[in-house]
Amino acid sequence: MATDSSDGLDGVRNRIDAIDQELLRLISERARYAQQVAHLKTESNGQQVQFYRPEREVAVLRRIKDANPGPLDSEEVARLFREIMSACLALERPLNAAFLGPEGTFTQAAAIKHFGHSVVTRAMATIDEIFREVESGACDFGVVPVENSTEGVVSHTLDLFMSSPLRITGEVTLRIHHHLMSHEADPSAIRVLYSHQQSLAQCRGWLDRYLPHAERIAVGSNADAARTAASEPGSAAVAGLQAAEIYGLTVLAERIEDDPGNTTRFLVIGKADSPPSGQDKTSLLLSCRNQAGGLHALLMPLAAHGISMTRIESRPSRRGIWDYVFFIDILGHRQDLAVTAALEHLEKDAPLFKILGSYPVAVL
Ligand SMILES: O=C(O)C(=O)C[C@]1(C(=O)O)C=C[C@@H](O)C=C1
C-alpha cells in the first residue's frame, strides 16, 4: 500500500494496526472454516477420520509460495502459513509427534518445521522407541534422522525400516548449524567437550584448530551434551541454539560446522502414506539376486518407465554374509501410472520388495 511522507511514523503505524485487525479477522474466519472441515470429515468418516492431510498442506504452501508478491521471501511467507495451518489443525484435533530427545535436539526442530509449533512433541530416548510409540498408536507420527550431507546415512534408522510396518509419510530437510556453548567464558578453560558423534565429526576441522586439547566425548544427542555441560565446570558442548537456550549456556562460537551447507534429512513416519500431492517421492526397500549384474537388472524397470532415482543406499540384510538390501528413493507417487507399472515390474524380479511410503517432496 502506498504511503506519502505526510503520514509520518504514527500514520504508517496506524495503517499497520488496521492491517493487523483485518489479518486477525481473516485468520479467525479461516480457523472457523477449518472447524467446519473437521465436522464434515467426522460426518463422512466416523471413527477413521484423518484430520491431518499432508497432501493438502503442501498444496496450500506451494500455492502460497507461487503467489507470493514480495517483498517477503517465499520461504518466509510459507513458514507463516505453516504456522496458521498448524494452529487450525490443532483446533480440529491436536497432533503429537515423537522425536529423538531430550528437548532441544535437531530432530525436535525438524518436527516443528514440518508440523508447525502447535504440534505436541514428545521426547523419546532412542530411535527404536520412536518407532514403537507410533506402531502402538501412542503417538500419531514420529520424526527420525536418516542422512546428513557431511556424515552420510543414519544406518540405525534404515535398519529399523526392515522390520517395521510403519510408512514414511513425509520428509524434512534442516540446515544444521553447530555452536560451541559453555558456562566457561574463556575457551581455554574447556577441558572436556560433549556432543553427538555425528556433530563432532561435522565440526572436526574447527575443533582440531581451535580446541585441540579438549577431550571429545560422544553422547546420545546434542541436547544431552548441553545438559551435561551445564552441570560440569570446565566442559562445553557442541549443539544447536535451542539447546543453549534450554540449558542456559553461553554461545562462545557460532556456526562451527566445517561445511556451511551442512544439512540433515529427516523422515516422518506414521501408519499410512500420504495421498498424491503432484510432487512426491516413493521410498523402497529391495534386494537383488546375488549374481553378476543383479543390481543392474533390478534397476532396469525404473529406467524403462522413465522414473528418476534420487538416492540409493545399501545395507547388510543380516540374513547372511554378502547379502545386501537397497534403500531407494524415486520421484513420483506409488499411485502415479508410470510408478505403479515400474513397481509391479520390480516386485516380480526382486526377492525382497517393500514400499516404505509415498510422500510429498518437502516444501519448506
Ligand atoms: O483441508 C483440510 O482437510 C483441513 O483440515 C484444513 C487444513 C488447513 O488449515 O488448511 C488443516 C489441517 C490439514 O492438515 C490440512 C488443511
From TrEMBL:
<comment type="pathway">
    <text>Amino-acid biosynthesis; L-phenylalanine biosynthesis; phenylpyruvate from prephenate: step 1/1.</text>
</comment>
<keyword id="KW-0511">Multifunctional enzyme</keyword>
<dbReference type="GO" id="GO:0009094">
    <property type="term" value="P:L-phenylalanine biosynthetic process"/>
</dbReference>
<dbReference type="InterPro" id="IPR008242">
    <property type="entry name" value="Chor_mutase/pphenate_deHydtase"/>
</dbReference>
<comment type="function">
    <text>Catalyzes the Claisen rearrangement of chorismate to prephenate and the decarboxylation/dehydration of prephenate to phenylpyruvate.</text>
</comment>
<dbReference type="GO" id="GO:0004664">
    <property type="term" value="F:prephenate dehydratase activity"/>
</dbReference>
<dbReference type="Pfam" id="PF00800">
    <property type="entry name" value="PDT"/>
</dbReference>
<keyword id="KW-0028">Amino-acid biosynthesis</keyword>
<feature type="site" description="Essential for prephenate dehydratase activity">
    <location>
        <position position="264"/>
    </location>
</feature>
<dbReference type="InterPro" id="IPR018528">
    <property type="entry name" value="Preph_deHydtase_CS"/>
</dbReference>
<dbReference type="InterPro" id="IPR010957">
    <property type="entry name" value="G/b/e-P-prot_chorismate_mutase"/>
</dbReference>
<dbReference type="GO" id="GO:0004106">
    <property type="term" value="F:chorismate mutase activity"/>
</dbReference>
<dbReference type="InterPro" id="IPR002912">
    <property type="entry name" value="ACT_dom"/>
</dbReference>
<dbReference type="GO" id="GO:0046417">
    <property type="term" value="P:chorismate metabolic process"/>
</dbReference>
<protein>
    <recommendedName>
        <fullName>Bifunctional chorismate mutase/prephenate dehydratase</fullName>
        <ecNumber>4.2.1.51</ecNumber>
        <ecNumber>5.4.99.5</ecNumber>
    </recommendedName>
</protein>
<dbReference type="InterPro" id="IPR001086">
    <property type="entry name" value="Preph_deHydtase"/>
</dbReference>
<feature type="domain" description="ACT">
    <location>
        <begin position="283"/>
        <end position="364"/>
    </location>
</feature>
<keyword id="KW-0057">Aromatic amino acid biosynthesis</keyword>
<dbReference type="Pfam" id="PF01842">
    <property type="entry name" value="ACT"/>
</dbReference>
<dbReference type="GO" id="GO:0005737">
    <property type="term" value="C:cytoplasm"/>
</dbReference>
<feature type="domain" description="Prephenate dehydratase">
    <location>
        <begin position="96"/>
        <end position="271"/>
    </location>
</feature>
<dbReference type="Pfam" id="PF01817">
    <property type="entry name" value="CM_2"/>
</dbReference>
<dbReference type="InterPro" id="IPR002701">
    <property type="entry name" value="CM_II_prokaryot"/>
</dbReference>
<dbReference type="InterPro" id="IPR045865">
    <property type="entry name" value="ACT-like_dom_sf"/>
</dbReference>
<keyword id="KW-0413">Isomerase</keyword>
<dbReference type="InterPro" id="IPR036263">
    <property type="entry name" value="Chorismate_II_sf"/>
</dbReference>
<comment type="pathway">
    <text>Metabolic intermediate biosynthesis; prephenate biosynthesis; prephenate from chorismate: step 1/1.</text>
</comment>
<keyword id="KW-0456">Lyase</keyword>
<dbReference type="InterPro" id="IPR036979">
    <property type="entry name" value="CM_dom_sf"/>
</dbReference>
<feature type="domain" description="Chorismate mutase">
    <location>
        <begin position="3"/>
        <end position="96"/>
    </location>
</feature>
<keyword id="KW-0584">Phenylalanine biosynthesis</keyword>
<keyword id="KW-0963">Cytoplasm</keyword>
